[in-house]
Amino acid sequence: MTEPPPWPGTPPAHGAVVLREFTEADVRLALELGEDPYVPLIGSLPAKPTRREAEDWVRRQQSRHAEGRGFPFVIDVRGTGVGTIGLWLRKLSEGIGIVGYSVSPAHRRRGFASDALKAITGFAWTVPGVERIELYIEPWNRGSIRAAEKAGYRNAGLLPAHQEIGGTARDMLLYSRIA
């Protein structure tokens, strides 16, 4: 395994949002996100997780950078974790960083996702090899589309049956930015 790119010395930030590492205190956030019917379908967090499952999920997030997978961040607003965002590097050899994000239902519609996207985008351009950032969004997800567009991402087209979500191949809109 090659050495992962370094963790940022200064936490990426934009607007009210600071992106920080996961801590044990983020078990609360994992429990909140696990109550959302959609969030568990798109990642490794179980639906309606037990405290132990939430703790295990936080530990997995804490190990992802050292494993070379990417940069998992908590979206933090004034000391409270309101969501997660990650820059994933599985396509780094192609010059591509992939961003995924989710905001707890109690904190949606406040601009936190777009601020987090702006923060992680600025950070992504400092990661050696990242020349393009991609987001995959289901066409029905208007909130995520608005956040991506507000953060300067452009719709690059529909990818039919591109991603399996909840056991079903789903169409995804590809949003991207180029350095």
TrEMBL record:
<feature type="domain" description="N-acetyltransferase">
    <location>
        <begin position="17"/>
        <end position="177"/>
    </location>
</feature>
<comment type="similarity">
    <text>Belongs to the acetyltransferase family. RimJ subfamily.</text>
</comment>
<dbReference type="InterPro" id="IPR051531">
    <property type="entry name" value="N-acetyltransferase"/>
</dbReference>
<dbReference type="InterPro" id="IPR000182">
    <property type="entry name" value="GNAT_dom"/>
</dbReference>
<dbReference type="Pfam" id="PF13302">
    <property type="entry name" value="Acetyltransf_3"/>
</dbReference>
<protein>
    <submittedName>
        <fullName>GCN5 family acetyltransferase</fullName>
    </submittedName>
</protein>
<keyword id="KW-0012">Acyltransferase</keyword>
<keyword id="KW-0808">Transferase</keyword>
<dbReference type="InterPro" id="IPR016181">
    <property type="entry name" value="Acyl_CoA_acyltransferase"/>
</dbReference>
<dbReference type="GO" id="GO:0016747">
    <property type="term" value="F:acyltransferase activity, transferring groups other than amino-acyl groups"/>
</dbReference>
